[in-house]
């Protein structure tokens, strides 16, 4: 739609220039005297554009004031790690909620992002919502975003951070504020499937998956080394926005993560039988 | 009084140095505003209000505009000096003076606009964020 609009605008500009050129070509020479010509150049070439630019400047400057976020607004800690995003929601007065690789935001409310990194430089970028902000080891950068329209937005790492830099993405889901509140309350409680004993849950522990991936809150593990999988079934994608959240994709990723993401810290589980990988994948999908 | 100033201005000699007075005032104003903002923000922190800085920037702006206006007035008077009819492109002292005066006048206009634009953005900020 944008491209179509730009094409129409370009066509209109082209036609206007051609019309003016044709009009000027028809006029007799010397019809405008030197004095009038100089005056035209002064007004149309200098004074007019100067006033126009000043008006644009004075209109745009108030819009550049930063959006405020106070202590009563939602804060989200995001940590860029090779090659995924650690997310922790800190709602005012509520428990912190861990997540990964997908960020949900309430429409119309300011949200404070605390951006950091434990390893190398990353850059947090949601082109549809805000400018880039670097994530620098040993430092916390603040970014306030107020998303106005519900929808899905793509985010990406915008600073080269290693071999899988281009595969370090995330999705931002902007929800209606009330729906977001309900969603966050649900995230703060463990997924029923995570608490129920099952063969797949046992496989997840026996293969040592829980050594790196916590199933929060309060189901398996504490702070995750890798992405928290507490509610992974509700996310739109896995492996930091690279693979669809489907059983086959998850099973394949468990057995050969390096095929999807070169340089990834997760070891490959190529010795794991396909059936076990599928069972774990199906169980993970059920953690909503 | 204007007439006297006008006559006095026409007697002044124009050199390349007089031509760079307006852009120099612009540069000095630009530097002063940025230095002031940097020092104020370093001392007060990100969120402290900067009301006094606005006043000082306003003072700098007034001073720069006065210098530019004086320079423009002198250039305008020199540009109107009596002499031979146009075109003024001979290698004479009068034509040289007219050329320098015209260039100075245009530079003064540009510098005044630039000073106002810098001041406009400085006056809009309420704190250092």
UniProtKB/TrEMBL annotation, chain A:
Domain (Cytochrome c): residue spans on this chain: 195-288
Keyword Calcium: no
Annotated GO MF terms: copper ion binding; cytochrome-c oxidase activity; heme binding
Keyword annotations of the record: Copper, Electron transport, Heme, Iron, Membrane, Metal-binding, Transmembrane, Transmembrane helix, Transport
GO biological process, alphabetically ordered: ATP synthesis coupled electron transport
Transmembrane segments: 6-24, 40-64
PANTHER family xref list: CYTOCHROME C OXIDASE SUBUNIT 2, CYTOCHROME C OXIDASE, SUBUNIT II
Similarity-based family: Belongs to the cytochrome c oxidase subunit 2 family.
Protein name: Cytochrome B
Native source species: Sphingomonas oleivorans
Lineage of source species: Bacteria, Pseudomonadati, Pseudomonadota, Alphaproteobacteria, Sphingomonadales
TrEMBL record, chain B:
Residues annotated as transmembrane: 26-44, 56-77, 97-125
Origin: domain of life: Bacteria
Keywords assigned by UniProt, alphabetized: Membrane, Transmembrane, Transmembrane helix
Protein name: Transmembrane protein
Keyword Membrane: yes
Source organism (scientific name): Sphingomonas oleivorans
């Amino acid at each position: 739609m944008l491209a179509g609009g730009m094409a129409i605008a370009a066509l209109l500009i082209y036609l206007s220039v051609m019309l003016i050129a044709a009009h000027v070509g028809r006029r007799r020479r010397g019809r405008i005297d030197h004095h009038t010509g100089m005056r035209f150049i002064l007004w149309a070439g200098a004074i007019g554009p100067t006033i126009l630019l000043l008006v644009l400047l004075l209109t745009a400057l108030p819009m550049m004031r930063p959006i405020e976020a106070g202590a009563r607004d939602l804060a989200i800690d995001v940590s860029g790690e090779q090659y995924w995003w650690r997310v922790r929601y800190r709602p005012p007065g509520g428990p912190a909620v861990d997540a990964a690789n997908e960020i949900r935001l309430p429409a119309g409310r300011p949200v404070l992002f605390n951006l950091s990194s434990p390893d190398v430089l990353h850059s947090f970028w949601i082109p549809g919502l805000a400018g880039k902000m670097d994530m620098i080891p040993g430092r916390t950068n603040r970014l306030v975003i107020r998303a106005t329209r519900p929808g899905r937005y793509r985010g990406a790492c915008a600073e080269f951070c290693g071999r899988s830099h281009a595969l370090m993405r995330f999705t931002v889901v902007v929800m209606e504020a009330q729906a977001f509140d309900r969603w966050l309350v649900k995230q703060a409680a463990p997924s029923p499937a995570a608490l129920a004993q099952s063969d797949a849950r046992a496989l997840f522990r026996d293969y040592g998956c829980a050594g790196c991936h916590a199933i929060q809150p309060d189901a398996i593990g504490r702070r995750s080394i890798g992405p928290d999988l507490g509610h992974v079934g509700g996310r739109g994608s896995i492996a930091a926005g690279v693979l669809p959240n489907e059983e086959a994709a998850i099973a394949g990723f468990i057995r050969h993560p390096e095929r999807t993401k070169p340089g990834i810290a997760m070891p490959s589980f190529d010795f794991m039988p396909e059936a076990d990988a599928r069972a774990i994948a199906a169980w993970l999908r059920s953690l909503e | 009084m204007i007439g006297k100033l006008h006559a006095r201005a026409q007697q002044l000699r124009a050199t390349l140095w007089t031509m760079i007075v307006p852009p120099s005032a612009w540069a000095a104003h630009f530097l002063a505003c940025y230095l002031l903002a940097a020092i104020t923000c370093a001392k007060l922190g990100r969120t402290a209000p900067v009301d006094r800085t606005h006043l000082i920037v306003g003072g700098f702006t007034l001073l720069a505009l006065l210098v530019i206006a004086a320079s423009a007035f002198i250039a305008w008077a020199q540009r109107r000096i009596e002499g031979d009819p146009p075109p003024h492109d001979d290698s004479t002292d009068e034509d040289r003076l007219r050329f320098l005066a015209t260039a100075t006048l245009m530079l003064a206009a540009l510098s005044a606009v630039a000073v106002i634009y810098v001041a406009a953005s400085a006056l809009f900020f309420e704190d250092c964020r």
